[in-house]
Each structure stands twice: as structure tokens, then as C-alpha cells.
Design goal:
The complex is a heterodimer of chains A (139) and B (492). Chain A has 139 residues and is mainly α. Helix content of chain A is 68%, strand content 0%. In chain A, helix 1 runs antiparallel to helix 2 and helix 3 packs antiparallel against helix 4. In chain B, a hairpin with a 6-residue loop joins strand 1 and strand 2. Chain B starts with a helix and ends with a helix. Classes of the chains: A mainly alpha (139), B mainly alpha (492).
């Protein structure tokens, strides 16, 4: 049994059901397909394909799984990125960006010194490119 | 036509445009030479930088990155057996064995020269074929466009390799994402969840940055990819001898032809083109056993094909408005932001601009060749940069670039969500190219079908039996059924 295909199939099955169900809440077209027509078609096709994948996933898999990988490092980066985005409009851009990069690089195994130098350099580069060069207000 | 060409050339020769082109080629060379960065990622992450200038310099930079990154992707493929971009996968097969034999310099030289040959020949194809294709496409009405986009979407199956159902599901996700925003015919809001920012639909560029930038970084972190040491032994001479030219030139020309054709197929890019060209060249060669052991023919065919896919992809993108590969999908987004709709009307209303694109591609190819020949050794040194440095740069420029498009926080979350979804899909071996096809072609297909139905007063038969539409329907059926039949014949 392929766990990957099983989880992909189940997720897309949920998407297909949601699309078909929600399409009926959209207004019907007057003699022509309305706004709900395409969501219904796409949802229906997604449903059928996901059922096909789930059917296929029950077969035994010959290839070994690629493994979970470095889950902790991914969760750390995703968590830090979420925090950076949540605090996007809080405080000066330069400070929060340099801090984000410092923690990111340190968490990815760089020394404090390297992380500090690189975070300050990258922050300066992005400010130069976007705020000074392109006049994008970054806060 | 002549006046339009001169106007296009004049626009290209402006100092600002040439400056942006040079910057693009330099950036592209770095993006290509670093295994953690790809051409698609480079174009996606740096596209927002081009929205503050006019179309020509903006596109000059993006085309420079595109043309610069694909050949330099061959440098790490040759030196450390790690492709710099997916298009240079096949370059590893003969390039690395050549480097192990102490002929790294020759392999790098062949990579630079034959890549330029592939790019220039495919640009020639673009210049010759694009106008007739576009003028033919001008006859298309909504029903023909519906047939064409349906065919484009059906190619999702073909570009999904042996994971056809997974690829089709990714395509469905792209089509579903394209539903967000106002209905194209009635302007009724769909799936915007009451957010005014989503009424215009999901911003394409942040989604691309997420899919190809953020998700790639997360995949590399998950797989703990480390930078590899470079063998700094003497590389040997760069230029092939006349007898070596005789060996590699026919393979390069064949590779360029195959690469252009594969590139012109929607969503099939240089990676597929190079693999097909390498395999076909091996099949017709007398010295088959040399392939994979340092064959100049193998390296030449794969390098020419991966680069020739650029001209093929650009032809499809410019003439029909359909992406030839992931990079040209992002270029469509960039052109739309500049108020230019790729497709046959571009050839009728903006001829000098089309010629300007052709000139930009030619200059970019020549510049890249020089960079490949002169800069191979310095670029080899760039390979020593630790991966975390690159990841931090990509995440930062991707995030700020996504925000800078509209100064909208919703774009940041679109990038983040696309990055996370892209990461999960890639970890589950679901191909991403069909998702991009669905996202781009979905709105075109829906709007054209519904327009056609209004024009035909709801008569489906009259739409589907129009000759060009019917042709595309048959092609659609073939493209959906062929991969399934192939799977039955070749058990997984």
C-alpha cells in the first residue's frame, strides 16, 4: 500500500467533495452554464481521479519510501516564516527581517558570527533593491 | 515588417534595456550554477523587481535570467554530478564522466558553445514560425480557443511521467485555484470568502514564488542536501578540436531540433527535451556504449536540446498565450502585469515588441555563451557557497518580492500556502507542472467555452464540430489516452 498516494487521494477526495458541494450554492446560469458549472466539473473530475488514486494506492509498493526527512528543520523554518509573516506590519522592517534571518541561519547550523554578518548583509541588500531602488514601502 | 523589426531592435539597443539584460544574464548564471537555485526559481523570485520599469527592460532581465541559467546549470552537472537546473540532468550523464577523465574544461566549453547553438537555432525557429502561427491563430474564435486550452490542459497527463493520476490531480488543483475571484462572465464572486483582496483572483506571481522557490527550499532542507566539494584539478582546454567538432555538431543540431519541438509542447520544458534528445542520439549512434561514459555526442545533444527548448517554449507562449514550460508561465504573468496579453493579438498590435523579444533572446544567448566560456572557472567557485545561505536569500527575496507586487499581505500568505502545498506535493511525488497549466489555462478555457455557448445559443454540437475545435478535441483524447496506454504496456 502506498501511503503517499493514500494521503494524496484522501486530500483530493475532500477537495472534490467540497468543490461539488459548494458549486450548488453558486447561482445557476440562465439557459447557459452559470458560475457553478466549472467548479462542479472540476470537482467531479477531482472526485473521480482521487477515487482512482485511492484504488491504485491499495496495491503493494515495490519502491522503498524516501523517509520523513529532516522534519524538525522543516517545521522550524515553516514556523519561523509564519511568525515573520504574522509580524509583517509590526516594528521596523530592517529589525524584524534581520532578526528573522539571524534565527533562520542559526537554526540551519550557521555560527552566530556568520549568521549575524549574513543576516545584516541580506537585509541591507533587500532594502537597497526594493526600498531604495524600486521605492517599495516596506515599513 | 522591416520597420517593425528596426523599431524592435532600436528598443533593444537602449542602454537601460541592455543593462537589465546584462544583469539578468549575470543573475541567471549564478542561479543556474548553484544547484540549490533553478531558472524557474530565479525568474519567479526576481519578476517583482521588473514591475517598476517598462516592459522592455523588465522582460530583458527575465529573458537574461532564463537564457543565462539553463547553460550554466550544466557547470555543476559537469563538475560535481549535480544538475544546476532540472534542464541539465542529462548533462550529468556524459559531462561528469568527461570531468573524471580530466576533460572538464572541454566539457564546459562544449556546454557553453552547444548551448548557445541550441538557443540561437530555436530563436531562429521562433522568428520564422511565430508570425505564421500567430496569423493562423488570429482566425480562432471562442470555440477554437476552448479546444486549444482543453488540449493544453490535457497535456497534464503527458507531462506527469509515470504518475498520470497524480499529475491530473495537481492540474485539478490549479484549475480549482483559478476559480477564485469574480466569475469571468457574470462577475459573481466565487471562493473569495468575503475578502476583497481575493476578488481579482489569486496573484499568480506569489503562487509561482511559493511553488518553485519556497517549496524547493523546504524540500532541500528536508533532504539535508549539503554543498559538495569541487574537484579543483586542472580542467584542460576549453575549445573542441576540429575532429571533436565533427563528432559533436550533428548531435547538437539534432538535439536542438528535438529540444525546440519538445519545448513548444505546453508545459514540457528543457529537462524532458534533453532526456529525449540524449536517448534518441544514443539510439541512432554507432558508439552507443560510449554514452554515459563521457560521450561528446551525448553531452552535445543534451545541452543543445535543453537550451533549444527556450525558443520552442517562447514560440508557444507568445503565439498562443499558452505556457511552453514553467518559466514561460511566469513570463505570461509578467507580460500581463505590463498590460501585454500573449497570443496572436500581440503579433498584430505590438509587432515591434515581438521583434524586441527576438533580439533580446539573441543578445542574451550570445552574452551567456561568453559568460559560459569566460566565467566557467569563477562560477565553479560560487558552487562552494553553503546551502543555508542560498535558502535564506531565496526565502527573503521571495517574501519581499511577493509583497512588493501589490503591497498586499494576502499575497504573502498566497506565497506561503503555495510553498507549503508545493512542498507536500513534491514529497508525495506529485508533479507540479500540471498545477501551473491548470492555473493559467483554467480561466481561458472557462471564459471561451461560455462565450462560445452564448454565441451558439447553447448548441454544444455546433461548437464541438467546428473543424479546428474538432481537431483539438481529437488531439485532447489522444494526449489523455496515450500515457495510459503506455502505462499498461510498461508495468511500473
Amino acid at each position: 500500500m502506498s501511503r503517499k498516494d493514500l494521503s494524496v487521494g484522501a486530500s483530493f477526495l475532500a477537495l472534490g467533495i467540497a468543490l461539488v458541494a459548494s458549486s450548488y450554492a453558486l447561482p445557476a446560469g440562465l439557459g447557459q452554464p452559470g458560475p457553478g458549472f466549472f467548479p462542479r466539473v472540476i470537482g467531479g473530475a477531482t472526485l473521480l481521479l482521487s477515487l482512482g488514486l485511492l484504488w491504485q494506492a491499495r496495491r503493494p509498493v515495490a519502491a522503498p519510501s524516501t523517509g520523513a526527512g529532516d522534519r524538525k528543520a522543516v517545521l522550524f523554518v515553516v514556523g519561523l516564516l509564519v511568525l515573520y509573516l504574522l509580524l509583517w506590519e509590526t516594528g521596523p522592517f530592517a529589525v524584524r527581517t534581520a532578526l528573522f534571518l539571524l534565527l533562520l541561519l542559526r537554526g540551519l547550523g550557521q555560527s552566530w558570527r556568520t549568521a549575524l554578518v549574513l543576516s545584516l548583509s541580506l537585509t541591507a541588500a533587500v532594502i537597497l533593491a526594493f526600498q531604495v531602488g524600486l521605492r517599495v514601502p516596506l515599513g | 515588417m522591416g520597420a517593425d523589426f528596426l523599431a524592435g531592435l532600436d528598443a533593444t539597443l537602449q542602454p537601460q534595456v541592455l543593462g537589465f539584460l546584462l544583469a539578468g544574464v549575470a543573475l541567471g548564471a549564478v542561479f543556474g550554477a548553484l544547484p540549490g537555485l533553478t531558472a524557474t526559481m530565479g525568474v519567479a523570485v526576481l519578476t517583482p523587481l521588473t514591475f517598476w520599469v517598462s516592459a522592455e527592460p523588465g522582460l530583458a532581465m527575465l529573458l537574461g535570467i532564463y537564457c543565462g541559467a539553463i547553460p550554466t546549470g550544466g557547470i555543476p552537472a559537469i563538475l560535481i554530478n549535480v544538475p544546476g537546473t532540472p534542464a541539465s540532468i542529462a548533462a550529468c550523464w556524459d559531462g561528469y564522466p568527461l570531468a573524471q577523465q580530466g576533460r572538464a574544461g572541454l566539457a564546459l566549453g562544449v556546454n557553453a558553445l552547444v548551448s548557445a547553438l541550441g538557443q540561437l537555432l530555436s530563436i531562429l525557429f521562433l522568428a520564422v514560425a511565430a508570425f505564421p502561427i500567430a496569423s493562423f491563430a488570429l482566425r480562432f474564435g471562442p470555440s477554437e480557443y476552448f479546444g486549444l486550452t482543453l488540449f493544453g490542459i490535457s497535456l497534464m497527463a503527458g507531462v506527469s511521467g509515470h504518475r498520470v493520476i497524480q499529475g491530473l490531480l495537481a492540474g485539478m488543483l490549479g484549475l480549482a485555484l483559478a476559480l477564485v475571484g469574480l466569475d469571468p462572465m457574470t462577475a459573481y464572486p466565487r471562493y473569495s470568502f468575503g475578502l476583497a483582496e481575493l476578488l481579482d483572483g489569486i496573484s499568480f506571481v506569489p503562487v509561482m514564488i511559493g511553488l518553485f522557490g519556497v517549496s524547493e527550499v523546504l524540500v532541500q532542507i528536508a533532504e539535508r542536501r549539503e554543498a559538495r566539494a569541487i574537484d579543483a584539478r586542472a580542467m584542460g582546454g576549453i575549445f573542441p578540436s576540429p575532429s571533436e567538432w565533427r563528432e559533436l555538431l550533428p548531435a547538437g543540431l539534432g538535439g536542438a531540433a528535438l529540444g525546440t519541438l519538445v519545448g513548444a509542447i505546453p508545459a514540457a520544458g528543457g529537462d524532458i527535451g534533453a532526456i529525449i534528445a540524449w536517448e534518441q542520439t544514443r539510439r541512432v549512434s554507432r558508439d552507443k556504449h560510449e554514452f554515459g561514459k563521457g560521450s561528446l555526442k551525448g553531452l552535445s545533444a543534451s545541452c543543445a536540446a535543453s537550451n533549444a527548448a527556450i525558443g520552442g517554449a517562447m514560440t508557444t507562449m507568445l503565439t498562443l498565450g499558452i505556457p511552453g514550460d514553467a518559466v514561460s508561465a511566469i513570463l505570461i504573468g509578467a507580460l500581463l502585469t505590463h498590460g501585454l496579453q500573449p497570443g496572436p493579438l500581440l503579433f498584430r498590435d505590438h509587432r515591434p515588441f515581438v521583434f524586441s523579444i527576438v533580439c533580446l533572446l539573441v543578445f542574451a544567448s550570445l552574452l551567456t555563451m561568453v559568460v559560459g566560456l569566460v566565467g566557467a572557472r569563477p562560477l565553479a567557485r560560487v558552487l562552494r557557497l553553503p546551502n543555508p545561505w542560498l535558502w535564506a536569500g531565496v526565502l527573503l527575496f521571495g517574501t519581499v518580492g511577493s509583497y512588493a507586487l501589490n503591497n498586499a499581505i494576502v499575497d504573502l500568505w498566497a506565497m506561503f500556502a503555495a510553498g507549503l502545498v508545493g512542498f507536500l506535493l513534491r514529497r508525495a511525488d506529485v508533479p507540479l507542472a500540471p498545477l501551473v497549466l491548470g492555473l493559467i489555462l483554467g480561466p481561458m478555457m472557462e471564459a471561451n467555452l461560455r462565450r462560445a455557448l452564448i454565441l451558439s445559443r447553447g448548441d454544444w454540437i455546433s461548437i464541438l464540430t467546428r473543424p479546428i475545435t474538432f481537431f483539438f478535441l481529437v488531439a485532447t483524447l489522444a494526449s489523455l489516452l496515450l500515457p495510459l496506454l503506455r502505462r499498461r504496456r510498461v508495468p511500473a
